[in-house]
TrEMBL record:
Keywords carried by this UniProt record: Aminoacyl-tRNA synthetase, ATP-binding, Cytoplasm, Ligase, Nucleotide-binding, Protein biosynthesis
NCBIfam families per the UniProt record, alphabetical: trpS
Role noted for this protein: Catalyzes the attachment of tryptophan to tRNA(Trp).
InterPro entries per UniProt: aa-tRNA-synth_I_CS, aa-tRNA-synth_Ic, Rossmann-like_a/b/a_fold, Trp-tRNA-ligase, Trp-tRNA-ligase_bac-type, Trp-tRNA_synthetase
The organism of origin for this protein: Streptomyces marincola
Catalytic activity: tRNA(Trp) + L-tryptophan + ATP = L-tryptophyl-tRNA(Trp) + AMP + diphosphate + H(+)
This enzyme's EC code(s): 6.1.1.2
GO cellular component, one term: cytosol
Binding site for L-tryptophan: D137
Motif 'KMSKS' region location, chain numbering: 197-201
Subunit structure: Homodimer.
Protein name listed in UniProt: Tryptophan--tRNA ligase
Sequence similarity: Belongs to the class-I aminoacyl-tRNA synthetase family.
Length: 330
């Protein structure tokens, strides 16, 4: 029986992944490698849709790989690779550009949001065709499912439409993938502004917990997290977004249910929750950081793992691209 194939990507981020990336994505990947035929890409081609410093990008890509391995991805149990190491991504993306409507792409809300922030002159054409490259990432591997957060649903719909259109015009070529919306994935909010999700583009750097931060620094961030003027530690995302966010993080890192945590902190103040969570995080992050550092200290091993991943990915990608090129008339 063939295991269901999944593909997911994550952008290399300067500094390191933040806690939202881990609890919302990376942790699910580690579980998926056991149950699925899993392909995971560090999407450096997507990263250059905004300006990047070349040295910083190269470092961020290696750091992403080291962190994914540090988090528990096993190159024997999944296919972990860097997107730019597999040229078929850009080759298929160009073909798919010819099968995507301009209006269809222009409706993508992520593009509308990001381009509104950056202005027309500051927005690259790459940002516009970003979802087409994402479609290529997925369709190259004939993925059955795409594990994503809710915010990516529209891009997966576009991928499905483009795949179905290509299949209808030129014959069955692509598996039409289903989104696998990660409902179990925690959504983590900014520690300083719990109305917005924790994001690398946050306004206050104190609101983001970077996984590779010195534990002292992240402890401080937890202890100074914004809560509210109440006192009772209770899960209430509407009325107590800050406290609820801390409870969700605590629960995700320990496996203790939120209801049980409410009992544990009954009669105690917010400060107790913050201090304990700082300790819980420090204990959780220490082995992750140690494993990640080990890969960073051994560039040859990291290169070997990524070359192996690219070989495994290309074995599939070249077959799909050859089929596509033939059908297109190349
Ligand atoms: P950012 O929002 O910091 O730019 P990305 O968009 O690069 O992060 O997200 C990488 C992955 O991490 C995606 O799968 C995304 O859904 C997940 N993710 C990002 N931020 C959060 C968050 N605050 N809570 C849960 N998941 C998140
Ligand atoms: Na984002």
């Amino acid at each position: 029986l063939r295991r269901s194939r999944v593909l997911s990507g994550i952008q290399p981020t300067a500094g390191s992944f933040h806690l939202g990336n881990y609890l919302g994505a990376v942790r699910q990947w580690v579980a998926l490698q056991e149950s699925h035929d899993a392909f995971f890409a560090i999407v450096d081609l997507h990263a250059i849709t905004i300006p990047q410093d070349p040295r910083a990008l190269r470092e961020a890509t290696r750091l992403a790989a080291a962190q994914l391995l540090g988090a528990g991805l096993d190159p024997e149990r999944c296919t972990l690779f860097v997107q730019s190491h597999v040229p078929e991504h850009t080759q298929l993306a160009w073909v798919l550009n010819g099968f995507t409507g301009f209006g269809e792409a222009a409706r993508m809300t992520q593009f509308k949001d990001k381009s509104a922030k950056q202005g027309t002159e500051g927005t690259t054409v790459g940002l516009f065709t970003y979802p087409v490259l994402q479609a290529a990432d997925i369709l190259l591997y004939q993925a059955d499912e795409v594990p994503v957060g809710e915010d990516q649903r529209q891009h997966i719909e576009l991928t499905r439409d483009v795949a179905a259109r290509f299949n209808a015009r030129l014959g069955d070529t692509f598996a039409v993938p289903a989104p696998r919306i990660l409902k179990e994935a925690a959504k983590i909010y900014d520690l300083q502004d719990p109305a917005v999700k924790m994001s690398k583009s946050a306004s206050s750097p104190r609101g983001i917990v970077w996984l590779m931060d010195e534990p002292k620094a992240s402890g401080k961030k937890f202890r100074s997290a914004v809560t509210d003027t109440g006192t009772e530690v209770r899960y209430d995302p509407e009325g107590k977004p800050g406290v609820s966010n801390l409870l969700v993080i605590y629960s995700a890192l320990t496996g203790i249910g939120v209801a049980e945590l409410e009992e544990k902190f009954a009669g105690r103040l917010y400060g107790a929750l913050k201090t304990e969570l700082a300790d819980v995080f420090a204990e959780w992050v220490a082995p992750f950081r140690a494993r990640t550092e080990e890969f960073l200290k051994d560039p040859a091993e990291l290169d070997r793992v990524l070359a192996l991943g690219a070989d495994k990915a290309r074995a599939v990608a070249t077959a799909t691209l050859a089929d596509v090129y033939g059908k297109v008339g190349f």
